[in-house]
Amino acid sequence: MTETDRAFIELDGVEKVFDVRKKTGFMKRERRQVRAVDSISFRVERGEMVGYIGPNGAGKSTTIKMLTGILTPSAGRLRVAGIDPSRERTRLAHRIGVVFGQRTTLWWDLPLVDSYRLMHRMYRIPDARYRENLDRLVELLDLADLLDVPVRQLSLGQRMRGDIAAALLHDPEVLYLDEPTIGLDVVSKSKVREFLREMNAERGTTVLLTTHDLQDIEQLCKRVMVIDHGRMMYDGPLAGLHEAGEGERTLVVDFERELPPIDAPAPARVVRVDGPRQWLAFPAAESAAPLVARIAAEYPLVDLSVREPDIEAVIAKMYEERATA
Ligand SMILES: Nc1ncnc2c1ncn2[C@@H]1O[C@H](COP(=O)(O)OP(=O)(O)OP(=O)(O)O)[C@@H](O)[C@H]1O
After folding, report:
1. Could you tell me which residue ranges the ABC transporter domain spans (predicted)?
2. Which of 22, 26, 164, 290 has a CA-to-CA distance to 45 between 20 and 30 Å?
3. How large is the ipTM?
4. CA-angle at 36, arms to 31 and 42, nearest 5°
5. For residue 234, is it left (φ>0), alpha (ψ between -120 and 50) or beta?
């Protein structure tokens, strides 16, 4: 196996600049450049499942569009499976699968199975392989009863499972998922996540996952990349993200009765009071035990729980620290 084989996705100093013309008055237009992706470099190995996150407008979709060949980078080098996506978009299409949570690649008026038949022909999937893949995906994604239903009649969760199957019929080596659980209920979310985990473990499919649902990342990805204003802010293990943001944990305590905010030992502090319940923030790296012991000794404690910092709060803190650095 060569180096290129292992690093399945490779970006070196990739940039994308859009020319935007804005109407500023009668017959007057202002030209402006938007640097959507600003000198991004990363490598994704075969079989990795990586989260690609950041706030709205950070540059995530632009990156995915360059990886599929829809957009051409303004500068830098980009390869997927050794292929330059914008030069050989059709050849690459046979090796990648894409799922956009907010829009479907299925034919709206046709029964689900007809969309699959069309993809069979479009991707020129050999008959035996098509049948084998379809059977497997129908079973794993629980689609048997839905195959003859027109796509417009499917629920969002059913349609999403249908879309994931469509993206995988041609056995792609890499799957780009853009918000795959958006708008799904808890049961559908966990079905989709479970399927992705199994697919990655059994077939070694490389996955790049863009999402605003941080549970997707927590449950699926060991590695996460954070992008903001087109720049890479963090690339590493999920656990390290908490440290990078120096997140806080929260101790939620229930007292026998309503109390004024308790006098917590610093650096812990009360951040919220609601009836007999109080929320105390304390540094994530510290043990909760001394704090709990102290409160239990001094106050009429009934119950307590510790909440881990959520990644969104950690990322927000990272931004704050960068902005003030
Ligand atoms: N075709 C385009 N022409 C001009 N500007 C664009 C174009 N596409 C994206 N942009 C701009 O580039 C920046 C990055 O957009 P992008 O869609 O990649 O962000 P994103 O991280 O995917 O955001 P979201 O989470 O909202 O989908 C934004 O400022 C956006 O307005």
Report:
1. 9-254
2. 164
3. 0.96
4. 150
5. beta
Q: What does CATH list as the number for 47-74+81-243?
A: 3.40.50.300
Q: Is the CB of 54 under 6 A from ligand 1?
A: yes
> Which range among 14-18, 75-79, 159-163, 238-242 shows the weakest confidence by mean pLDDT?
238-242
Q: Is 101 in the pocket of ligand 1 (CB under 6 A)?
A: no
Cβ of residue 32 lying under 6 Å from some atom of ligand 1: no
Q: Could you tell me if 191 and 155 are in contact, meaning their C-beta atoms sit under 8 angstroms apart?
A: no
Domain limits of the chain? 47-74+81-243, 248-308
- Please report the DSSP string for 35-101 in residue order: EEEEEEEEEEETT-EEEEE-STTSSHHHHHHHHHTSS--SEEEEEETTB-TTTSHHHHHTTEEEEET
Instruction: Select from 16, 62, 72 the residue to mutate for testing ligand 1; criterion: most ligand atoms less than 8 Å from CB.
Output: 62
Name which residue sits closest to atom 30 of ligand 1, judged by CA.
57
Question: Is 204 close to ligand 1, i.e. is its CB under 6 Å away?
Answer: no
The C-alpha atoms of residue 207 and residue 196 are separated, in whole angstroms, by 9
Which pLDDT does position 73 carry in this prediction?
97
Contact 95, 22 (CB under 8 A): no
Residue predicted with more confidence, 193 or 247: 193
H or E element: which one contains 250? strand 248-255
Verdict on whether the full-model pTM lies above 0.90: no
**Which helix or strand (DSSP H or E) is residue 320 part of?**
helix 311-324
Tens digits of residue pLDDT in 149-172: 999 999 988 998 999 999 999 989
